[in-house]
Amino acid sequence: QVQLVESGGGLVQPGGSLRLSCSVSGRTPGDYAIGWFRQAPGQEREGVGCISSGDSSTLMTDSVKGRFTISRDDAKNTVYLQMNNVKPEDTAIYSCAAVYEYGCSVVDYKYHYWGQGTQVTVSS
Fold it and tell me: Using the 8-state DSSP alphabet, how is residue 84 labeled?
């Protein structure tokens, strides 16, 4: 079992950058694939991307591909979501999630553990 805590959210101007962190604690956090998800007001939760355990391969959804990247530092038990060239439509609550698997996916029901989320607002 692991616990996840997101941080780094806030207000950012369109075209700006923001880095979110997901701190993972508990038993062997490096063995968990981590996904990032977001939910805007009145909308369903959608996948942003994910990073596998082991080889740290990543998968990004089309809406953020080329703008967002995911990385992990297992020595710090932290996974990062780097957000560049943000747009107003990126405004949402961003959450990270973990599953005890090697590979990752952006399907939310596959994840067993969730953080509380952090608000990202893109506005001028």
Answer: -
Which residues in the chain belong to E strands, given as ranges?
2-7, 10-12, 18-26, 33-39, 46-51, 58-60, 68-73, 78-83, 92-99, 113-114, 118-122
Q: How far apart are CA 94 and CA 92, in angstroms?
A: 6
The C-alpha torsion from 33 through 60 and 86 to 4, rounded to 10°, is -10
How many CB atoms are located within 10 Å of the residue 37 CB?
24
Task: Compute CA 89 distance to the chain's CA centroid, rounded to the nearest angstrom.
Answer: 16
Residue 54 pLDDT greater than 90, yes or no: no
What are 67-104's pLDDT values in tens digits? 999 999 989 999 999 999 999 999 999 999 999 998 99
Q: Is the dihedral of CA 12, 13, 14, 15 positive or negative?
A: negative
Q: Enumerate residues 6+ apart whose C-beta is below 8 A from 42.
A: none
How many CA atoms within 13 Å lie on the side-chain side of 50? 23
